[in-house]
Structure prediction request, 70 residues.
Amino acid sequence: MTLSVFNLLGQQIATLVNGPMTAGIHETVWDGRDAAGRVLASGVYFYRIEVKGLDGGAAYTAMRKMALLK
Prediction:
C-alpha cells in the first residue's frame, strides 16, 4: 500500500505509507511537513492511496482532496 500527499501543482510532497499492511482498518497522521521536513502552508492538498492486488497489479487507486489548517 502507498499513501502519498500532493500539492496543487501535482507534485508529490510526502509519502506517508509505503509497504505491505495487514487487512483491516488503519490510521495515519500527517504532520503538515514535506519529505524534507519543511513545514507547509495551510491550504488544499491531495492524497492518493494505491493498494496492490495479490498478483502485484493495482487493485485499487483513489485520489481525494483535503485541507491543511493550522
About this structure: The first strand starts at residue 2 and ends at 6. The mean pLDDT is 93. Residues 48 and 59 are 14 Å apart (CA to CA). The radius of gyration is 13 Å.
